[in-house]
Amino acid sequence: MLSNKYKITYQEKGVIKHKIVTKNELDRLKLPENIISIKSLGFDIQLFKKIRDSKIKDKLYELTLMLGSNIKLNQAFDILIKNEKDNHFKEFLTDIKNSFINSIDIRKSMKKYSVNPLIISLFKLIQDSGNISENIKFLSELTRENQEIKGNFLKIMLYPIVLVVTFIFALIGIFEFVLPNFESLFKGTNYEMSIATKTLFLLKDISGEKIIIATISIFILIIVFFRVYKNNNRLRVIADNLFIKDSFFVTRLNRLKILYIYFSVVHILLKNRYEFLEAINKAKVLLNNQYLFDKITQIENLLKSGKSVSFAFKSSGLFDDIVLSLIDTGELTNSLTLVVDEIKKIYKRRFENSLRLFSIMIEPIFFIIIMTLILWIIFAIFVPLWSMNDLLRF
Hints:
This is Transformation system protein. With 394 residues, the protein is mainly α.
């Protein structure tokens, strides 16, 4: 990102001073008195300013407490900005405040920052809802839960990742320092090597430079895939469909998380007196999965054509019998707001239960895989050695 810088020369209490500011700061800040000159220093390349989710979560919590104490929104933001020590985050808070107070599109204000797209979409929905102060609490809770989900998942995956990395380094050590000695020993005798031993030596032969080349090739293929994925709608639908299938734990977790966040937002929009059709339309901007986005669009189109809510949801093929039964009940009793709240809770419970089950299963699965590989190495190296030792005795 290009940023034009300026050098301001001014006099303060008889002393010549200098101050360097960007163009944005020049337009926004109060300039010093007794300015002597303002000179452009040309363009400077700046990286997008990374804004961490955890910091946004903390500030939203503080904002919720202040708004709960009947402090006005602009005053609450002023307090946050005044007490913030990080200049980048202070600028971020200032831009959010200006967007909310002056009805500036918050997505445009966030373009110069590296922010989680989900949080930007939530900010935009809150801005469009017209009831910012009340919905800030909802946004705070949702960002907190999103952080907890990330933290719990990373905590679950930490042990398997450490185990796998350690095992990879152990394999590299075996291939580079141990196997060459055993290979010369086996080849110097007439001993018939087993399949496990031959496979191990074959892997050793393709290690080193070939593994580096293979790793680079895989990395290039991944980059090409994501470039094509980004620009090809058909591939994106197919891939996104695979990413939310119930077939695998990780994809099931992803699907449940997306649907939980989606119905949470639909519920808050319904509470703000949005029509059901408008609520599901506005909330779908949160869907970063093209397959789910298309399914919700299908529901939306069926509702526009005059079909019932229960028929539209059933036709999508996205929801199970429990959710469809709740939708049918909500439509008949005119209580869709309450029903959507219950669906949100269902997806939240399912996600938490699946995450708990995943955490229970992941460690033993990885342990079995590692133990299988260790047994393979034992059968490939040590069993032949013991056999050779028995032959030498006779």
